[in-house]
Structure formats: structure tokens, C-alpha cells
Amino acid sequence: MIIFCGQLPDVSSLAEEMGVDIKPIREINEEYKEILQGYDLILVDETQRIYTHQLEIIKNQVSENDILCIFFHDGEQIFSTEEEKRRNCEKIKEISGESFELSEKVRTNKNLASFIKNIFDLGKRNAGANYDCVNVVFSKNNSDAENVLKHFRSRGYEFINFTTAYSKKTPFDCFKGMTHHDTHNVIGQEYDNVIIVLNKVFKYDEQGNLRGEKHAVGYLYRNLLFQAVTRAREKLVIVVVENQQLFSKINMIKYNNLA
Predict the structure, then answer these.
(1) What is the crossing angle of helices 110-120 and 244-254, to 10°?
(2) 259 found inside a domain
(3) What digits encode the pLDDT tens for the residues 15-53?
(4) How many CA atoms, within 13 angstroms, populate the side-chain half-sphere of residue 58?
(5) Could you tell me if residue 188 is left (phi over 0), alpha (psi between -120 and 50 degrees) or otherwise beta?
């Protein structure tokens, strides 16, 4: 069985194709915990995001029924301060008998992966990389950015917006009507070409690390950005709105002009 924490468009078809049972994490609760029994192997994806009581149910059922369980987790894809408080990654390390770590991201091409690393840390420069797979566009305002989005969407790019909030305003609300993708519902998905929008929410600190302001409902903008850019397989477009400093830094990454 695979327990998945994201939103899959067609679970039944995927399960049939793979020949395994796939259950969404919302089905893992006290009332239905028996569904875990009878399996020899359980794979839990995106474990860093599940609730504490769900992790406890899985852990107890695995132990009581002698089931082999593999937890997949990534601390860089914790989306909120609440998820940080759960300490799932630390708890998994405490209960697991053996641990393995992927050395590199495998879903992106090498040049794109190198560019993404450098976005988050200006010190991780790769002077020999070719970043033709990336475009960086400056927009003077949100209206201009919308026109850029329309252009690239017409060329097959998928626009991933930052997750907004139901009851509070966020700096990315104006882009909600331009896509059905946000940084939460693309978990587990990937696309050939991706376009994103950045604005004054982001800046580089004195050490060259990318920082994000506090989200209206406690999401971590930096981690949401990581989720968005790592959905791209081949090409990435970054539209920077009203943030000349950010645009200049990212543009220098593209052309390998960082000092």
C-alpha cells in the first residue's frame, strides 16, 4: 500500500497501473485504522506533512502487525510553522531501523537543479553550468506580470501560484484566477515547463540566503517556493514583480555573473 499526502488526479487508474493500493492520508484515522492490516509493505510519502495522530496510527499498526514500512520525508518541503512543530522528520529517525538519503533531486535536469540550488543560496554557484533552461523576467506591476503569464501559458507553461488563504489577504491573491495550480495541490506532480511569480515577499539576507516574509496563515514562503520550482522537468520562467534587487540577483545567477 502507498499512503499519499498530496492530491492525485486519478488515484484508481494509477493504482491499477501500478498494481498496488493507494490511500489518501485523510483515510488514516482511528475509525479506519484497520485498513492498514493485511499488508506486507506500506510506503508513506510526504511524511513530513501528516498529522501527529496519523503518524502514531501508522507506527502502532506497523508494529502490532509486523508490517515493513518505508517513510519518505523531506524537511525542505515542510510548508508551515505548524508542520515544523510536529517534528515528524525527527520522530521518523527515532523510530526507524535504517535510514537512506537521496544525494540529489532526480526529477530535474542537472542545469535546472543547479540553478534552483543557487536561487536559495547565492554561495552555491556553479560556474560551468548552462542556464538556457531558465528565463528571468522583470515586471513593473501585477498587471504587467499577468500579461507575461498569459504569454508563457499560451506556450505550454504551467503557472504555479503560491498557496493563498481563505479568510486573509496575501500578496499573490491577484493571480488566483489565472491557474488552478498552487504550491499545495501540485505535491507529487511534475511538469515539463513551469512559470512562477516572485515579488517583495522575497529578499536575500547578508549571507546570500533567500528569505521570505511571514505568510498570512503561517505557511513558509521559502519552502513553498522550493515546492514550486522543483515541479519543473525542463524549463523554468521566473517573473519578478516590483523587486529590482531580487531580479538582479537571480539574473546574475542565470548569466553566472555572481561575484
Answers:
(1) 140
(2) no
(3) 888 888 888 888 888 887 888 888 999 999 888 888 999
(4) 30
(5) left
Helix ranges (H only) for the chain are 11-18, 52-64, 81-86, 88-95, 110-120, 142-153, 221-229, 244-254
Per-state percent for the chain, helix, strand, coil, to nearest 5: 40, 20, 40
> pLDDT at position 232, please?
95
What is the rounded average pLDDT of the residues 185-201?
A: 93
Total length of the chain: 259
Q: What angle do CA 249, 189, 130 make, to 5 degrees?
A: 35
Same domain, 91 and 128: no
User: CA-to-CA distance for 78 and 30, rounded, in angstroms?
Assistant: 24
Query: How many CB atoms neighbour CB 187 within 10 A?
Result: 18
Q: Looking up cell 499577468, which residue turns up?
A: 146
Could you give the number of structural domains in the chain?
2
Residue 54 CB contacts under 8 Å (≥ 6 apart), including other chains: 25, 28, 29
Which helix H or strand E contains 237, and what residues bound it? Answer: strand 232-241
Residues 147 and 248 in one domain: yes
CATH of the domain at 230: 3.40.50
Residue 71 buriedness (CB in 10 A; 0-12 / 13-18 / 19+): buried
Residue 239 and residue 115 share a domain: yes
- In-domain check, residue 100: no
